[in-house]
Write a structure and sequence with these properties.
Distance between the termini: 53 Å
Strand order of the largest sheet: 1-2-3-4-5
Number of domains: 2
Helix content: 40-55%
Shape: globular
Largest sheet: 5 strands, mixed
């Protein structure tokens, strides 16, 4: 298996996009991060992101991104041996990790092997799930109108978002919530939010 590190975000995106798309729901976090980094390469910190792919017979088998100082993120893979290959190269490069995010089997294997090789223990912080929308029932949209959320709706959207964040993420600090609100406001101004009008 071949491990490749990429300096150029656009080249990395071009190479890995078809692979990630095959497992679109499972790789939604990677898509989100890649899209954010296209707008601002240093959005998640002062250090340059680390882009990695693992190939076998010229076919991508695993994709990984890290935006230091944050966790290592691994794509879905049907070849769990790629996890061992990634771990070996990260250890060889003397990389220190706060944690890993990924699909359940992959993350479990990563943690088990990483801890064994590093002589450390791990703790599960968040057990997340992914839901995939496969179709929208006709009665959901009905004759309602689907419109772009303009700045006219900004105050209402931000109020809803803040209430949601406070209820859903009770462990978040006020500062984290305010940062999220700023990102949502920016998305509204860029025309990335939509409403269903009844």
């Amino acid at each position: 298996m071949k491990v490749e590190f990429y300096e150029d975000l656009n080249r990395f995106n071009e190479m890995v996009f078809p692979f990630l798309l095959k497992y679109e729901a499972e790789n939604n976090l990677l898509f989100s991060i890649l899209n954010s980094l296209k707008e601002d390469l240093y959005r998640y910190g002062d250090n340059k992101p680390i882009f990695t792919s693992i190939t076998e017979n010229d076919k991508i088998k695993l994709v990984s991104i890290r935006t230091p100082p944050h966790n290592q993120i691994i794509s879905y893979t049907d070849n769990l041996q790629t996890i061992d290959v990634l771990i070996d190269v990260l250890i060889k490069k003397n990389i220190k990790l706060p944690g890993v995010l990924g699909f359940k089997e992959g993350a479990k294997k990563f943690i088990k092997q990483w801890c064994k090789k590093k002589g450390i223990s791990a703790e599960l912080v968040t057990n997340e799930r992914i839901y995939k929308l496969e179709r929208v029932a006709e009665e959901t949209l009905g004759k309602n109108e689907f419109i772009k959320a303009t700045r006219l709706y900004e105050n209402k959207i931000l109020q809803w978002a803040k209430e949601f964040l406070i209820e859903a993420f009770q462990e978040r600090t006020n500062e984290m919530i305010e940062q999220s609100i700023k990102k949502i406001a920016k998305a509204i101004r860029k025309g990335k939010n939509f409403f269903i009008i009844r």
